[in-house]
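Thread: Newbie trying to understand structure tokens

Hi all, I'm a second-year student working on a class project, and my supervisor (Dr. K.) asked me to get a predicted structure for one chain before our next meeting. I've only ever worked with sequences, so writing a 3D structure as a token string is new to me. If someone could post the tokens and maybe explain what I'm looking at, I'd be very grateful. Here's the chain:
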Amino acid sequence: DAEGFMTDPTEWTPEIAAVLAQEEGIDALTDDHWTVINFVRDEFDKTGQSPTLRAISKRSGVDTKTLYALFPKGPAKKVARIAGLSKPKGCI
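---
Reply by user tm_fold:
Sure, no problem. This is what the structure looks like when written as tokens:
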């Protein structure tokens, strides 16, 4: 879409994630990044929505401080974009 979010999550690949991460200023995706990305994609598959930052930090095993370190300046929005999902509700 106009903000760089994928409109069809089924077209997403790990290679696309790496490119989107670089666009977001993340040079390389670590195992911790993938833990969060896979959690967010699994939640989206179950609910049809991107999980909130609180849900990610409570249920993914990655705390809020670490989320901000992994995905600086807006982790919920950045991880959704990198994971190939639509913009989370409530994100500006």
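A couple of things are worth pointing out once you decode it. Residues 9-82 form a domain with the Arc Repressor Mutant, subunit A fold (CATH 1.10.10). The chain has a mean pLDDT of 92. Feel free to ask follow-ups in this thread.
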